[in-house]
Amino acid sequence: xVQSAPFLRQGVTTxxxxxxxxxxxxxxxxxxxxxxxVSALLVTxxxxxxxxxxxxxxxxxxxxxxxxxxxxxxxxxxxxxxxGLTLPPALPLWMAFLGGVVGVxxxxxxxxxxxxxxFNPALIGRAFLQAAFPxxxxxxxxPVWKRPGAPWTLFPGNLALPLMQPAPQPDxxxxxxxxxxxxxxxxxxxxxxxxxxxVAGSLGETSALVxxxxxxFLVWRRAFDWRIPxxxxxxVAAFSGVLWLLSPERYPTPAxxxxxxxxxxxxxxxxxxxxxxxxxxRGAWIFGTGVGILVVLIRLWxxxxxxxxxxxxxxxxxxxxxxxxxQQRAFGHGRTKAPPKxxxxxxxxxxxxxx
Amino acid sequence: xTLATLNASFRHGIHPEEHKEATEHLPVERMPFVERYVLPxxxxxxxxxxxxxxxxxxxxxxxxVAEPGGFVSTALHAPVSGTVAALGPxxxxxxxxxxxxxxxxxxxxxxxxxxxAPVDPFPLSDAEFVAEVQKAGLVxxxxxxxxxxxxxxxxxxxxxxxLVINGCECEPYLTTDHRLMVERPAAILRGIAIAAHRLxxxxxxxxxxxxxxxxxxxxxxxxxxxxxxxxxxxAPLRVKYPQGAEKMLIExxxxxxxxxxxxxxxxxxxxxxxxxxxxxxxxxxxxxxxxERIVTVAGPGIERxxxxxxxxxxxVRAVLDHCGGLKPATREVVMxxxxxxxxxxxxxxxxxxxxxxxxxxxxxxxxLPAEYSCIKCGRCVEACPQFLNPSRLQRLARAGxxxxxxxxxxxxxVECGSCTFACPSGIPVxxxxxxxxxxxxxQKAKQQAAERAxxxxxxxxxxxxxxxxxxxxxxxxxxxEATAQSGTAKR
Lengths: 355, 491
Hints:
By secondary structure, chain A is mainly α. Helices cover 52% and strands 0% of the residues of chain A. Chain A folds into two domains: 14-139 and 141-174, no CATH class; 176-323, no CATH class.
């Protein structure tokens, strides 16, 4: 049997792209381990197990494929780890597992598998957990890295039995996140703390600096469209900057808005999921701007302290509409009926900047 | 060369590895004559040529053996002196059996070209010129094999002001145009002089990619020596695929888009390959019709890569043997380039007028990549030079929604393969699009045939009704006695 042209392909493959993101997640996981101990790894492992298991058993398979064949692209593994990194360190492990199952199940499998889903599966999982177990999902803990026994001490909540209430955490361990502090207690957290990540929050909300660095690595590897995180962060900075300039005592600084909460993590790892974000560059700008605006709106005027998850989910829903509106004009389909005019003779070649 | 020209190119496109090192420095060698030549009567777009020689007849190298089968058709000439051995079905490189002339070479002939006095193209009328070019059997040597003379018949109401010459050779591995530009720049300029004069163009631009700096220099030198710098210039272009596609080339050189469904002449341009220009010069000055052309034999599976001047009709097997044969690792031989070439199902097929390369590929190139779902990464959208959405097109093609693909501009697809090249999920995008387009074509052909049949039937029914009506009228005018007798007036 002969193969037909073309016989050349560029070197990047889909599993290769997933691998790049995995590589980028390793420093984030390492920071989470450093700050929150082995619980961080266990929570992430539980959500990953749920995600991967669901994909292995239920993912729509091509005829003749074995169970687990669809795992080879690595996307379920990524979903599980990213979901885990949005969860609090003291979360009961069975909840994390359930989150992974629901995330991949309702966020990916029922849509038809990889490439067909509308919503980011990790965020579907987290949204489910937040709705089903609101208290557990909003019980934050301060970093434990300076405590004796860290990082090998588990948070007691992790080992709660399924459907049983977790043992109440010692007060010394629970803490409010910087966003909680800003919204409900009107307290500001220093930017330095935010950069280093020594604040309470989900596992992935740690060092914004680390996330920025791995984000640049992923941009270099062309793992995602750089316009999405650029427009998200740019819009958040601009929108919150304008508000802060108008009323500095009421609104936090743009630096605070950029570095706190899950914004950096969401902008780099969740909003950039290619399946659920617009296909073409112009759409990416609109998508990112929408996420940015919604994040600021929810954080400042919404009922919740954190808005990244819902902002991204809402913009995921808007993606098909964005794609339809940003349809690029096909070659030779000009806006006018008349054929285009030639430039004068002897003039330079081409529009400079042909990509 | 300014910074602007260094960056000059069309938008989108891809950058495959060029793989030209093996042959770009090799001068063109003449392929020795072989025992048999097979000439398909259709080596060009348009109607097949009609044979004018009989089996058993002796022919001289360069003699006309088949005349054009219409306006969009061209002449065919004997590549060797010998005897017409057969006229019958032979295997075409595309796998089909087609009508071919087979010529057995005369082993004792010196293979001199049929003498022909040089023709001065300048005093000819436009119609005479077009007829002369058709007599030369010239077709587009870039691979499309479109009869060249058709481009010189400018329709009423259209003016041509620019001649764009394609020296890009954007397909990897191929170096035929490169060697021609380095070795025979004067012939190319002579062809340009003939064509430019005929079309009354204001300027001629030769687009050459920057991976051929020696070609740029050679052409520039020839232009300076001929003193035609005022009307002929070389445009060095950024290396990109598919810059050699005529619409992309016009965009790269002039920054404008040929309207969809239109031709370059709609924007006042005529695009020709450098080889075609040399062909014009060879025909008018030397009486040499299109009976041989440069072919790059390369690829990881060939023993000795080379640029050969091959007579049209040479069996592919003979050409490959002349280059040392195929290595055992070879899996496939492709006629043309790696992006749009024709994979060969057998080696006993002839080299055609449009054959630019014979590439031997091993398992590395022919290996089917693992296929994943489309992750909507957008690489294909960024690559498509026609600004289509290949991701959506492959989805529709997979779902069998072929008619819907027309709504998404699938007819603008030039099948360059940039989308498949760019896809990280290993999806055979352009292959799916090709299948869909041919399904749509078949469907349309069936529909048209059904419509014609329905029309024919309706016409026949109308005829029958008319006949019945006439007959009834004849009956009605019969003498009253007869009708009274028979009792029935209607039949």
